[in-house]
Write a structure and sequence with these properties.
Elements lengths: L2 E4 L3 E7 L2 E2 L3 E3 L1 H10 L5 E8 L4 H9 L2 E9 L6 E6 L6 E7 L19 E4 L4 H10 L6 E5 L2 H6 L1 H9 L3 E5 H8 L4 H10 L4 E5 L5 E5 L2 E5 L13 H16 L4 H18 L6 H4 L3 H15 L8
The structure holds adenosine monophosphate.
The site of adenosine monophosphate has 16 residues, from strand 2 and helix 8.
Keywords: Kinase, Transferase
Organism: Brumimicrobium oceani
InterPro entries: Carboh/pur_kinase_PfkB_CS, PfkB_dom, Ribokinase-like
């Protein structure tokens, strides 16, 4: 099965209570692609960078099997830049700078070799671009999932509502779910959001795990309690990459398999936060990932001998 990922490929500057970085490589598309690359080979990215983006990083993605045919390099322009500062609890952050640069006029191109893909992950980007990508797919993929953030709710709500109506699954964090629905209770928020279109909804709760909603079914997966969290940037995208990579590699979108996908995504996200940027995600081994997934299984596994 094949996966198409759309998302920013960018520069980030991050400040956490543990340190500060100058410009490093980031972007939702970058994290998603690295993460899903461990689950499947047939994956493709749609994005845009400026001429300032290092070829070395594109080579790293390519070496992981990511097809870059749909990645445009715009001469004379700068890549997207985002900067954020985390609060002491590491669960919340302030955006300090968002420079759209090449994203401002991004017109996504879907190469012929990407057509017919079964799984589409619309990473955090302008909802107008996300919609264009859906409309430019000649055949509707089996599963269209999408991420977004408060930035787009603030400046492009009308387009965002249209994009949400056109997808199968929305993957957002708890704060975004509250802002989008106007409901504090996540159960009420989930109901309202699903009335906007998507049959499936994942609400990520940072170090408190993730919830999956479908019909009357709800599944909850914890996050792995980690000793050190250095940088949560990209954890949500890494989660989405692991989740979609798992679903695409197993080609099964039943609720039961989505539960496994949530665990795969959570395991990948737990690696992402251990180092700044994409560093940890670039060189994982199959054994490390398998062991981490088993840790999750152990974390949630118990035997209820007597109920009452
Ligand atoms: P996450 O921590 O999962 O929310 O993702 C952070 C990544 O999203 C960073 O690497 C940023 O480059 C990227 N990002 C932040 N804001 C935007 C935006 N408005 N559009 C696209 N990508 C963004």
């Amino acid at each position: 099965m094949s996966l198409v990922t759309v998302g920013s490929v960018a520069f980030d500057a991050i400040e956490t209570p543990f340190g500060k970085t100058d410009k490093i490589i980031g972007g939702a598309g970058t994290y998603i692609a690295f993460s899903s690359s461990y689950f499947m080979k047939n994956q493709n990215i749609v994005s845009v960078v400026g001429e300032d983006f290092p070829q070395e990083m594109l080579d790293k993605l390519s070496n992981k099997g990511v097809n870059l045919e749909g990645l445009q390099i715009i001469e004379g322009e700068k890549s997207f830049f985002w900067s954020g500062k985390y609060h002491n609890d590491m669960n919340s952050r302030d955006t300090l700078v968002t420079e759209l640069n090449v994203l401002e006029n991004f017109d996504p191109i879907i190469p012929a070799s990407y057509q017919g893909c079964e799984y589409l992950m619309l990473g955090n980007l302008s909802p107008d671009v996300q919609l264009k990508v859906i409309n430019r797919m000649e055949k509707r993929p089996k599963l269209v999932a999408m991420d977004t953030m408060n930035f787009w709710m603030d400046i492009a709500m009308d387009d965002l509502v249209k994009a949400i109506a056109a997808i199968d699954m929305l993957i957002i964090n708890d704060e975004e779910a509250r802002q989008l629905s106007g409901e504090y209770s996540l159960v009420k928020a989930a109901k309202k959001i699903r009335e906007m279109g998507p049959k499936f909804l994942v609400i990520k709760k940072g170090e408190h795990g993730a919830l999956l909603f479908h019909g009357t079914d709800v599944f909850f997966a914890p996050a792995l309690p980690l000793e050190d969290v250095f940088d949560p940037t990209g954890a949500g995208d890494t989660f989405a990459g692991g989740f979609m990579g798992y679903l695409a590699s197993t080609d099964d979108i039943s609720f039961e398999n989505m539960k496994r996908g949530i665990i795969a995504g959570s395991a990948m996200a737990s690696f992402c936060v251990e180092k700044f940027g994409t560093e940890k995600l670039e060189n994982l081994t199959k054994t490390e990932i398998e062991d981490r997934i088993q840790e999750f299984v152990q974390l949630t596994n118990f035997d209820m001998v007597k109920s009452i």
